[in-house]
């Protein structure tokens, strides 16, 4: 091909919809926590595909599983069984202590699945009349980009001009359990929340929030659906972010790292009393549960339960926390983290989040802004302590430059 980074950017800008505003970095290869651009410049990947690349780039175990399956059979549709499906769904359900799995592809599809299942459950089990179901959600949420999901977004950018919206959602402030209680009535079928809000800037709720939500859901016979698409599968140092407070929701939604960074794989995982409401013909996807997803998915489960990933996330999460705490005050207004996942609020007088990301990329570190002057970091869970420290040194360097 012989195209330069500038050529690639020009081509992408002129021939693709402008639905993102990427940093001017054209990635051509990845290994572990590092990626390389077209000209051979290396960057430490501290975004990891919004946690889709938890196991790092070019992970040998995942590649071996994918290669082996590609040589056998890749897609069958659910019109038939395939020999990877049963072993995958059973291992995934067992890993999180649930009975059943409904496999899809993207995170948004898993959320749509959660909404549909909750409504059907409300109709068939709780007796909520058809068309009356309500679901309580949290403000500043991010659950995806479909028409129904943006209907309960509080981000005007995600919403404006895309109406009419899907009715049936009530939004209350994140972290406020009492507001959830007040929003629930006889029509309420579910509470849908992120155990840690990712896109909002890695917002970790107080320790009593999720346990209170659990109690409220139990008292009102409402399903507690945890969107663990970004928080789950090792990011916080545990398989489920809900584990930190010992909470067991009625359903988990997983995505991103569920496909090992190889292909899009998502799922709703719950017990039979919930997922049993879905019968043939009522919900599905041509690609959901395909043999390649099953082969990669079994490897993901094995890696999470046997591999060093959780331990590394916990250990280096402490390093990350210590160093971020030390940053606060010198151009950094506040920082919070859980596992290898951090939100850093930079002094808005110094730089916007976007400007900071651009500067960091020039120094060889890739992160992503969320809103205002907040950036989030979510490096692959395979990152070494030296590399993490190197990335944080670059962060300190950029802040110092901005303050000079
Ligand atoms: N839920 C959460 C919590 C997310 O962070 C995201 C993606 N950032 C999604 C759902 C949507 O996932 P996808 O982009 O794969 O549709």
Task: Annotate the secondary structure layout.
Blueprint: H1 5-15, E1 27-31, E2 34-37, E3 42-45, H2 48-51, H3 60-70, H4 85-95, E4 100-104, H5 107-126, E5 134-138, H6 147-150, H7 156-159, E6 169-172, H8 177-183, E7 188-193, H9 209-220, E8 223-227, E9 251-254, E10 266-270, H10 272-275, H11 291-306, H12 309-327, E11 332-337, E12 342-346, H13 353-362, E13 365-366, E14 368-369, E15 374-377, H14 385-403
Parallel strand pairs: 3-13, 5-6, 5-7, 7-8, 8-9
Antiparallel strand pairs: 1-2, 2-3, 4-10, 9-10, 11-12, 12-15, 14-15
Helix pairs in contact: 3-11, 4-11, 12-14
This protein binds 4'-deoxy-4'-aminopyridoxal-5'-phosphate.
Give a short synopsis of this structure.
The protein has helices at residues 5-15, 48-51, 60-70, 85-95, 107-126, 147-150, 156-159, 177-183, 209-220, 272-275, 291-306, 309-327, 353-362, 385-403; strands at residues 27-31, 34-37, 42-45, 100-104, 134-138, 169-172, 188-193, 223-227, 251-254, 266-270, 332-337, 342-346, 365-366, 368-369, 374-377. The chain is an alpha/beta fold and 404 residues long. A hairpin with a 2-residue loop joins strand 1 and strand 2 (34-37).
């Amino acid at each position: 091909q012989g195209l330069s980074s500038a050529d690639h950017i020009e081509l992408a800008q002129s021939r693709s919809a402008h639905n993102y505003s990427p940093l001017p970095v054209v990635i051509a290869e990845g290994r572990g926590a590092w990626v390389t651009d077209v000209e051979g410049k290396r960057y430490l990947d501290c975004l990891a595909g919004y946690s889709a690349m938890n196991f790092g780039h070019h992970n040998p175990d995942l590649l071996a599983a994918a290669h082996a399956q590609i040589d056998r059979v890749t897609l069958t549709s659910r019109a038939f069984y395939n020999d990877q499906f049963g072993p995958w769904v059973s291992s995934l359900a067992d890993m999180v202590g649930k009975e059943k799995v409904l496999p899809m592809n993207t995170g948004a599809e898993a959320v749509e699945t959660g909404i549909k299942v909750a409504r059907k459950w409300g109709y068939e089990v709780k007796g909520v009349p058809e068309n009356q179901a309500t679901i309580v959600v949290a403000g500043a949420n991010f659950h995806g980009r479909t028409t129904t999901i943006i209907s309960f977004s509080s981000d005007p950018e995600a919403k404006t001009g895309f109406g009419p919206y899907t009715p049936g959602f009530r939004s209350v402030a994140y972290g406020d359990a009492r507001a959830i209680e007040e929003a629930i009535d006889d029509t309420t079928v579910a509470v849908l929340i992120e155990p840690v809000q990712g896109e909002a800037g890695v917002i970790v709720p107080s320790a009593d929030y999720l346990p209170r939500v659990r109690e409220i859901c139990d008292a009102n016979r409402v399903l507690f659906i945890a969107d663990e698409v970004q928080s789950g599968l090792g990011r916080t140092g545990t398989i489920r972010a809900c584990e930190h407070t010992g909470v067991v929701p009625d359903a988990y939604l997983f995505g991103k790292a569920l496909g090992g960074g190889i292909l899009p794989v998502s799922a709703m995982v719950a017990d039979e009393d919930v997922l049993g409401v879905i019968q043939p013909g009522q919900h599905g996807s041509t690609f959901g549960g395909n043999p390649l997803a099953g082969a990669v998915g079994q490897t993901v489960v094995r890696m999470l339960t046997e591999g060093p990933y959780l331990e590394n996330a916990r250990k280096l999460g402490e390093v990350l926390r210590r160093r971020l705490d030390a940053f606060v005050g010198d151009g950094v207004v506040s920082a919070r983290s859980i596992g290898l996942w951090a939100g850093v609020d930079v002094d808005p007088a110094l730089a916007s989040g976007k400007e900071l990301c651009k500067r960091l990329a020039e120094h060889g570190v890739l992160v992503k802004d969320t809103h205002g002057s907040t950036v989030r970091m979510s490096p692959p869970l395979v990152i070494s302590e030296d590399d993490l420290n190197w990335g944080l040194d670059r962060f300190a360097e950029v802040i110092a430059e901005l303050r000079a």
